[in-house]
Amino acid sequence: MSFSKDFLWGAASAAYQVEGAYNEDGKGMGIWDALSAGHVKHGDNGNVACDHYHRYKEDVALMKQLGLKAYRFSVSWPRIMPEEGCINEKGLEFYGNLVDELLAAGIMPMCTLFHWNLPMWIHEQGGWLCDKVSDYFAEYVKIVVEALSDRISVWMTLNEVSTFLGAGYMDGVHAPFEQCKAGTPEAKERICALTKNILLAHGKAVRVIREQAILPSEIGIAMDGTLYMPWAETEEEIEKARTATFPEGVSCKAVNWWLEPAVKGKLHPEMERIISTEELGQIHQPLDFMGYNCYKANNYDDDFGLNPALYPGIPRTAMDWAITPDALYWAVRFYHERYGLPIMITENGMANVDFVMSDGKIHDQQRIEYLKGYLKGLKRAVDEGYPVIGYLYWSILDNFEWAEGYDKRFGLIYVDYRTQGRTLKDSALWYAGVIQENGEKL
């Protein structure tokens, strides 16, 4: 078996990381716009970013040159709803123009409805702790679906729920930069309250898309979260890895914390106290696929002290993440076996030390080798019959990497932030070859 003829080779981005135009054409302030000063390396911000708002036609032309089959972008909630009860038609017009440009280039648009930049007017009411946030989200989704669902058929409700909860509301390293000491009763209550609102927002959004979309829709959620690989392919080691991947405790970093209620309609005992049967019915909505953002397995993490698996000189990306090529295989296998959904790899890629060399090109051989290893793992999953519907490289452009600013370059396309010039990296040309041959030579 090999990749299907309609396999979706593509790339991804997020609104705040690429668009810029942070205060143009009626856009409102989001938490990253308003609160990031003092929290980002070098004082960087997303005010201009890659200027994709003005340069989207150039960017889509480069995607077409690479032969992308799909492009996953996110819609900026504060660009669409700058104030409570207010719809910004100029914002909707931008996304309509982007979608039209993609379709004219033969590229499938995939829409992520929330990728972290919560409107400030909601933050001022409590953000994701606000009891009304899920209804606000459903209202926003309805606006976007009404405007774009005649041209978009693939939707993702939320991106990386574990990270925008954990990094934003617990660790304080992402917007809105709020901290709560881990392991305390207060932390557990906070995680549960946030989880309830986030899950309700997801479920209500799915229902809105099902009821309102013009084109038949494929709906998923783009997850990140814990993934462990077995140290050896024995039944015992595989079961150990599976158990570690799906822990039983209160952990917003675990995929099962989210997908047990969203996909299976099952609540963790801690959540049974605060989610009613009626609310669980709103959360538990049929999904067409599971998106998974996969950069590494957690086997080599050292967040909690010395990890004996970490040998000196282990290969790492510029984000200091260990390179674990088999991660895509085990992600597809474990998550499909547990949830029974087709899998889309909604993000995978690496930050590299990229710069323009003396010949004017960006020779990023490390990224090519990274992709070879990870995509071989994905091909193994396909060969074994696991349903994988697409692979989206993160990211199409170098961009604003949240608290890391602009130093960490994930893109297939190099961006000179002084001039906004774009240059295809060697990895982009290599990936174009993979797409052209549909992964046959991996």
Strand content is 5-15%
What is the 3D shape? globular
The CATH class label is: Alpha Beta
Helix content: 40-55%
Largest beta sheet: what is the strand line-up? 1-2-3-4-5-6-7-8
Distance between the termini: 13 Å
Number of helices: 16
Alpha-beta content class: alpha/beta
Task: Let me know the largest β-sheet.
Answer: 8 strands, parallel, barrel
By CATH's scheme, which homologous superfamily applies? Glycosidases
The CATH architecture can be named as Alpha-Beta Barrel
| H/E topology pattern | EHHHEHHEHHEHHEHHHHEHEHEEEH
Rg over C-alpha atoms, rounded to the nearest angstrom: 21 Å
CATH topology: TIM Barrel
What's the domain count? 1
Question: What is the oligomeric state here?
Answer: single chain
Number of strands: 10
Low-confidence regions: none
Report mean pLDDT, rounded to a whole number: 97
GO molecular function, one term: beta-glucosidase activity
Family: Belongs to the glycosyl hydrolase 1 family.
Keywords: Glycosidase, Hydrolase
Protein name: Beta-glucosidase
